[in-house]
Predict the structure.
Amino acid sequence: MKKTIAIVVLSVAVIFPPSSAGRRAPKPLQIFFIDTEGGQATLIVSPVGESVLIDTGWAGARDADRIKVAAKEAHLKRIDYVLITHYHGDHVGGVADLVQRIPVTTFVDHGGDTENGDNAKKLFEAYQKATEHSKRVQLAPNQGLPLKGMTLEVVAAGGERITEPLPGAGEANFYCSSEPEAQADTTENAQSIGVVVSMGKFRFLDLGDLTKNKSIGLLCPNNLIGTVDVYLTTHHGAAADNPKSLVWAVRPRVAILNDGEHKGGAPEAWQVVHDSPGLADFWQLHYAADAGKEHNVGEDFIANLNEQSDGNEIRLTALPDGSFTVTNSRNGVSRTYAPKP
C-alpha cells in the first residue's frame, strides 16, 4: 500500500565556534545535472549527505553508469530518494539498470500511469517490477520529503497543483495578459511532479516535463512559486512549455537546459530563457545541433559539444546565503553568483 509523506520543513542552522580560529565554512548543497542525452537525471545532495535523484534517464547501462559516477563524486553509497516525475522512457527508463548499480531507499512518484499504449504499459510494468522490493510512496501538491538541511516542496503532481502561494510568492503576473491559450495535453507529461528545492535563501525549480496547460495555473493570474535562483528548463526546452509567463515570472539568475544533441532546445524556448529579465547566465548540457549557432550559448557554457564529448556534467554548489557556483565538467569553466541581500 502506498504511503504519503507530509512536508517536513527544517531550518538550516550553521553553527560557528566562538573564535575565528578553526572556523568551518558551511557545507554546500550539491546538484549534479547528468547527461542522459535529452532525458533527465538530476542528483541533489544536501549538506548533511541526504540525496534525491530526480529521474533516471533512458534504459541501458549508459545513463545508469553516469548516475553512479555522479553518486561516487558526491561520496554516496546509496540514494535516499529516487523521484520519478512521470512515466516516459527518458525519465523512468533507467530505473531497472540503476538499482543494479547502487541501492535506493525509497522511490517517489505521482501514482499510476495515465497512458494506455503498449509502450506505456511496458515502461510502467518495468518500473513496478524494478521497485517491487523497495519502499514506494506517492506525492501530491503541498507535500514533500522529510529531509534534513534542505526542503523539497511539490508544486504539481498527477495533474494537480498547489492553489495557495509558497511563502513570499503570490504577486500578480503581468505577463499573463499576453499569454496565448494553452493547448490541452492528456499525456504523462501533464502529470509531471514539479518541485522547488531550497536551502536557506537558495531556490531551484524543476517542473519535469510539465506542459503549459498545467503549469500556467501555477503562474497565472498570480505567481504561486515566486522567484528562483536556478531554473531547469521545462520539458527539455520545448517551445510551448517555457512561456514568458513562466520563465520571466520566476526570474532565474541562472538557467540550465537539459537537452540532447537532437532533442529539446527549441529555438523559441531558448530565446525566451535567454532574454529573461535578470538572467546572469544560461548553461546547456548539450549543443542543440538543430537549433543553429544563434540559438546556442557559447561553448564555455555547454557541457557536451557533440557525440564524441558526451557524458560531461554541469555541477552546482550552493550555500545558505543564496550564493552558488556552476561548473562545466568538460572544461572546468566555473562561475560564482553572489549571495542574496
In short: The longest helix spans residues 61-73. The chain has one domain: 28-337.
